Structures are given as structure tokens and as C-alpha cells.
Amino acid sequence: MDTKITFQKTSCYFCSEWLDDKTVKGHLLTCGQVLEKCPYNCLSYIQRKNMDNHVKNCVKRDEKSVLVQNVADDIQNERLMSIEENLTFLRKSLNEEIRMRHDLIVELGHLKKRNQITDEWTSKVSEVLNLLQKRIEEEKECRQLEIKDFHGVIDNLLKQFQEIKGFRKDMARTLGSIETKIVSKTNLDTNAAYEDDVPEWKTTCKRLENELERLRFQSSDDINDCVKYISAINDKMNQIEMLQQNQHNITDDGLMHSLSRLDKIETELTATSGLLSNVNDRTVKTDYNVKQLLNTVNEIEDKSDKVVKQVDIYKELVYETKQSLADLEEHLRVQRQFNMITNIRGHLIWRINHYERKLNDAKESEVPLKSPLFSNKHYGYSLRLDVYLNGIGTWKNRNLIACLTVVNGDYDTLLPWPCKLKADIILREQPENLNDATDITKLVITKKRNDRLEYQNQFIHIPHQVINSGAYIRNDSIVLEVKILKTFDSYNGFKPDTPNSGTPTTQII
């Protein structure tokens, strides 16, 4: 059994004023009699309780609705144009950022290429410098070896010169001793002896002179050879010094050129590093701007999604409110029409007008159409037929779905629970000749919403093709009939109900 909720305040149906339960009935009677001007300016003043009927039939309604629709369309178009302009601006900003990024990437590619060429040229210069340094070292080693050989030759020549000089001194000393002997011998010996020794002395002197002459020529030849060799050595040394000077000049020129080139490269690298830092800064700023744009786009999308969801919720609430108001208005009209007669016979005939419009409304929302309340007997269960014109779940867009619902009643505490109601739901055909009518009858079993028992046949479905094929729709209306057959008792099973026989009550919406 459902929990009964009691509200202490109620909103007025006409002026939306909140009222206590004690004063709501009197206020409704008074407020409903108030005259109001027609909203479509047809120069009529209508009571509030009859305003809805007048609005539906007002001759200027179509013109006003067209104007309202045009204004709503203009507002919607302006909003769409504003959103499109914002999206266009965002696209342009993103395209500009993409173009700037592309330019930066191309510029970075050129800089990388220049750096690569500079690195290759630097490596080649380093290789040439290393090769020159190696050649210089080899040349120095060769020069040192030659100088060492020259020093050895010079030492040998000096040694030979000293030997020749000593030999000459010995020869001079020997000649001096010979002369001394000759003088002494002249004084002591006689002339005969002197004459005997003179040939020997002459021979000796001649031999000594020849030897001295030979030594003089040999010494002069050796000296000339030494002088020539020394001059040749000096020439070679001069050539070596000139070659070394040329090598030093070439090396110095190459080093100066390399240093100047390295200075230029260093300057270019400094400028490149500055440019790269600027590019990195611009890239960071661009990334930040892109992230901000993306965040803005995401926020706009989130807000748009939320707005769309809220609009859908509001549409659902508006439609449900409109449907509830229409049902309430129809129920009030029916109650006024039948002078507050309550259907307690367990038999209901319900006419649904404006079928096409209500079917289109049902395609946008799953809010069911609700029939007037009726009962299976005096002080019995309060019943209502709920109809989904466009279906629900797997039957959506293909079938009409109906179910019989037990709602809270004033006498629920006096009735046995749990309770099942078994009824026939009939879709009445409306041909020209009633004898040719072929009604569609479906068996349904319903229960209270919080009842844990589950049974089949709680919903009946009728395909749209079947409804459109016969004469079930006439004057844009369909007719549904409900007949309560049996009541299910959880202890005694199904037992027949005992409603009073009579003419069923017909309800039209």
C-alpha cells in the first residue's frame, strides 16, 4: 500500500498563489469568477475558469501564435548566429595558432639545418687543424734529426781539423829539432862528416817538404770540402728555416681564418640561441593560449550540454505540466458535465480527441495520458488507465501501450491487500456501419506500484499499423473501453466481482 502524503499548502490553479488547505476551495470559487482580458486581444473578457476553453477557440489565436513563434524563431536564430560567430572566431584563432606553429616548425627546421652544416664545417676545420698540427710535429721531428746529424758531421770535421792542426804542430816541432841537430852537428863535426850527412839531410828535407806539401794540399782539400759541406748545410738550414717559416705563415693564416670563422660561427650560434629562446617563449605562450582556447571551448561545450539538458528537462516538465493541466481541466469539465457523478461500475469508455497532435507530443516525451479515475464498485479500488500513445521501451515508435493502475484511494484501509485486478481493455472500431465493427480486446492484470508480486499481462500493446489500418481513428479520435472482470485475492485466488449492472460511463479528452 502506498504512503499517503498530505500537503498543508496548495497553489491556486488560476493565480498561482499559495493557500492553506482550509481556504483553497473558497479561493478557487472566487478566483475562477474573476474576468480577464483575452491574451490574443480579441476584445473579450472571460472568467478565469473558462479562459483555457476560450484560448483554444479564440479566432486570433493562430495569428498570435504565429507572431510568438516568429519571435521565438528570431531569438533562437540570433542565439545560433552568436554561437556560430563565436565558433568561427575560435576556428580562426586555432587556424592562426596552427599557422604560427607551422612557421615556427619550418624556422626551427632551417635553424637545425644551419646548425648541422656549422657542426659539419667545424668538424672538418678541426680535422684540418689536427692534420696540420700532426704535419708540423712530424716536420719538427725531421728537422731535429737533420740538425742532430749536422751537429755530428760538424763535430767530426772539427775533430779532423784539430787532428790536422796537431799534426802540423808536430811537423813544425820535428823540423825545428832537425834544424837544431843540423846546427849542432855543424859546429861539432867536421866538414867531411857534414858533407857525408848533407845528402841524407837533403833527402830527409825533401821528403819532409813533400810530406808537408801533401799534407797542405790534403788539409786545404779537406778544409774546402768542409767549407762546401758547411755551406751546403747552411743552405739546407736556410731552406729548412724558410720552409718552416712558410709553414708557420700558412698555419698562422689558417688559424687566423679558422678563428675568425669560429668567431662568426659563435656569433651566429649566439643569435640562433637567442632566436631559439624567443621561439621557445612564443611556443610556450602559444601552448598556453591554445590551452586557454581549448578550456574555453570545453567550458562552452559543457555549458551548452548543461543548457541542452536543462532545456530538455524544462521541456519535459512543461509538457508534463501542460498534460497534467489538460487532464485536470478535462476531469473538471467531465465532473461538471456529469454533475460530479463518480464512476463506480467498473466500466469506463474513454474517448481521446486530437489523436495526431497527442501522438506527436508523445514522440517527444514519454509522459502518459491518464484517464479519469473510476472504481470497480462502491467504496472499491481507485483505478486509472494510463496510455502511452507512442509506446515505451522495446515497443517505442511502433505500438500503443496501456496499463491499468491502482492509485491511492480514500477506502484503501478497508480493502484487502495485495490485490490484483483483471480487466479487458478494448479499442473500439468506429465504422459507418456499426454492424461491421471489429473491436480489439486485450486482457490486462495490474497491481499497486509497490506490490512485490509480478505477473504477466501488466501491459497491453496494439501496433500502430493495426490502429491505422481500420476505422479505429475517426474525426482524429480513438475510443478505449475498460471492463473489470475479476479481483484477485492472495488467499482465495480469483473471485468474481459484483459491480452493479448498467450503462458504462463515457469519458472524453
Automatic annotation (TrEMBL):
This protein's UniProt keywords: Coiled coil
Residues in coiled coil: 191-218
Keyword Transferase: no
InterPro entries: MATH/TRAF_dom (IPR002083), TRAF-like (IPR008974), Znf_RING/FYVE/PHD (IPR013083)
Residue stretches making up the MATH domain: 347-484
A Pfam family annotated for this UniProt entry: MATH_2
Origin: domain of life: Eukaryota
Name recorded for this polypeptide: MATH domain-containing protein
Organism: Chironomus riparius
